[in-house]
Amino acid sequence: MADDPIKEKCHVDDGKFVRPCHWLDKATDARGNSGRERGLRVFDYSRHGVPSRTFFAIKSAEFPKALAIDFCPFCGTNISAPFTDEESAQPKDPTHDR
Ligand SMILES: [Zn+2]
């Protein structure tokens, strides 16, 4: 029946794209990275016109550039993969052989 059932849990596609649960989705009011309003935002990044990453972050007076959230505050799912698995991150593991 319903094409769009309420999503009870977030999940992360390909380790890069957070697909929010119903409540997380609603909590952003569809606000993206632009603008100065504080609150919960969805960050959609693209590289060369191709979506590269989607994650959620909170902007506040203390964090005007936003603070990414590791866990969904509603369903508790770990949604940190898109920003903990940086493609551009350099290996920092001291045991890593160079
Ligand atoms: Zn969620």
How would you sum up this structure, described in words?
There is one protein chain. The chain has 98 residues and is mainly β. It is 10% helix and 28% strand. The chain contains two helices and five strands. The chain has helices at 22-27, 81-84; strands at 11-13, 17-19, 39-47, 50-59, 67-68. It has a three-stranded antiparallel sheet with strand order 3-4-5, with no helix packed on it. The radius of gyration is 15 Å and the shape is globular. The protein starts with 10 loop residues before the first strand and ends in a 14-residue tail after the last helix. The model is unreliable at 88-92 (pLDDT under 50). The structure holds zinc ion (ZN). Residues 9-10, 20-21, 24, 72, 74-75, 77 line the site of zinc ion (ZN).
